[in-house]
Design brief:
By secondary structure, the chain is α/β, with parallel strands linked by helices. It has 15 helices and eleven strands. Strands 9-8-10-11 form a four-stranded mixed sheet, sandwiched between helices. It has a three-stranded parallel sheet with strand order 3-6-7, covered by helices on one side. It has a two-stranded antiparallel sheet with strand order 1-2. A hairpin with a 2-residue loop joins strand 8 and strand 9. Helix 9 packs across helix 15. The radius of gyration is 20 Å and the shape is globular.
Length: 320
C-alpha cells in the first residue's frame, strides 16, 4: 500500500509539473497514421523559432524524443525513439502504439538521452529542462523548446509539431477531423442534458482533486462539448501550477448534476468516498449520475488523442 501510495504521489508531482509546462472512438475522427502524400518538407533543412531563439531543424529526421508530448507524435504517425515514464508508469492510453518503445525518465537524464541517439529532442517548455542543462542537450543533438503559450494549447502544440516534423498537412487534417467530431458530439450532449452541469473529480492515493475549467479533460467537457459548469467550478478561475485537494466537507458545495470520477481502481480515497455519508448524499450519486473512468492517463493530460478519448467517454455517459 505504501509503495502504491508513493508511486501515486510521484505521478501526481509529475502531472502537476507537466501541467505547469503544458499550461490528459469515432474512426472518421482518428488521426491517420500513414505518411501524407506529396509532403516533402521533412527532407529539407529549415529554421524555426522556439522559446530559446532560432533552431535549425535537420532534414530527414528519423529518431525523435519528446517527453510527455507523445500524444502529438502519435497523432502525426510518428513513433518516438523513447517514451516518457516514471519507473514502470507510462501513458497507458498510447500503449497500443508505444508498447514496444523503450522508456526514458520523465526528467530526461543526459545519459539516457545520449543512449537513445536521437536526431531531435523536443521539450514542452523551458521549465521542463532540468538543472539548466539546455546547452548539454544541444551537444547531444538538435534541441527544440516549445514556448509556454504553445505547449499550453494542444492544438497549437500539434500544429507546431507538424511544422517541426514536416507534417503540416497531416496536423491540419487531424485538427479538422477533431473539430468535426467535437461538433457532432456537442449536439448529442446538448440534446441529452441541456443546462445540467458536470464536474470532473480525480482520485489519486488518499486525495481527491477537482479539475478547473481549463485543465485537461475539463476543457473538453466545457469548451468542446459546451457542458455547463457548476458555479463552484466557474468560481475557481484558471488552473494554477499546483493543485489543492478537495475535502469531503467541500463536496456538497460542488453542486454538479453529473460527476466524472477519474481514478485507477483500488485508490484508497475511493473506499473513503464509498463509505462517506457526505458523498452518498450528493444529488449526482443519488441519481446514478456518477461515471467511473478507470484510466486517468487520458483525462489528466493535454493532447488530441487524449481529448478524443475523453470526449468519447463523455458522450457515452451523458448522451447514450
Amino acid at each position: 500500500m505504501k509503495k502504491h501510495f508513493y508511486l501515486s504521489l510521484s505521478l501526481l508531482f509529475i502531472l502537476i509539473f507537466a501541467s505547469a509546462c503544458g499550461n490528459g472512438d469515432d474512426q472518421a475522427a482518428e488521426p491517420k497514421n500513414e505518411e501524407p502524400k506529396n509532403e516533402e518538407s521533412n527532407n529539407e533543412e529549415r529554421t524555426l523559432e522556439d522559446a530559446m531563439g532560432e533552431v535549425v531543424i535537420p532534414a530527414n529526421i528519423d529518431k525523435v524524443i519528446a517527453p510527455y508530448q507523445e500524444d502529438s507524435l502519435v497523432a502525426l504517425g510518428v513513433t518516438p525513439a523513447a517514451q516518457w515514464s516514471i519507473g514502470d508508469t507510462v501513458l497507458d492510453y498510447l500503449q497500443d502504439d508505444l508498447k514496444d518503445v523503450p522508456k526514458i525518465g520523465w526528467d530526461l537524464p543526459l545519459e539516457q538521452a545520449m543512449a537513445a541517439d536521437p536526431d531531435l529532442i523536443i521539450f514542452s517548455s523551458p521549465s521542463a529542462i532540468q538543472n539548466g542543462q539546455y546547452e548539454e542537450y544541444k551537444k547531444i543533438t538538435t534541441t527544440f523548446v516549445f514556448k509556454d503559450e504553445v505547449s499550453s494549447d494542444w492544438r497549437k502544440q500539434l500544429t507546431q509539431m507538424g511544422e517541426i516534423l514536416g507534417k503540416q498537412d497531416q496536423a491540419k487534417e487531424a485538427l479538422e477531423n477533431y473539430e468535426t467530431k467535437a461538433e457532432e458530439a456537442k449536439t448529442k450532449v446538448q440534446d441529452a442534458i441541456g443546462e445540467e452541469t458536470a464536474a470532473v473529480l480525480w482520485v489519486m492515493g488518499d486525495q481527491i482533486y477537482l479539475l478547473e475549467n481549463d485543465r485537461f479533460s475539463a476543457k473538453v467537457l466545457y469548451n468542446d462539448l459546451g457542458v455547463k459548469q457548476p458555479a463552484f467550478v466557474e468560481n475557481l478561475g484558471p488552473a494554477g501550477a499546483s493543485w489543492d485537494p478537495l475535502t469531503l466537507e467541500k463536496l456538497p458545495e460542488l453542486g454538479a448534476d453529473h460527476i466524472f470520477l477519474v481514478s485507477k481502481p483500488g485508490e484508497p480515497a475511493l473506499e473513503v468516498l464509498a463509505n462517506s455519508s457526505i458523498w452518498n448524499g450528493l444529488d449526482a450519486v443519488k441519481n446514478g449520475q456518477v461515471y467511473e473512468i478507470n484510466d486517468p492517463s487520458y483525462w489528466t493530460i493535454n493532447g488530441l488523442i487524449a481529448s478524443q478519448k475523453a470526449m468519447d467517454d463523455a458522450v457515452n455517459a451523458l448522451a447514450e
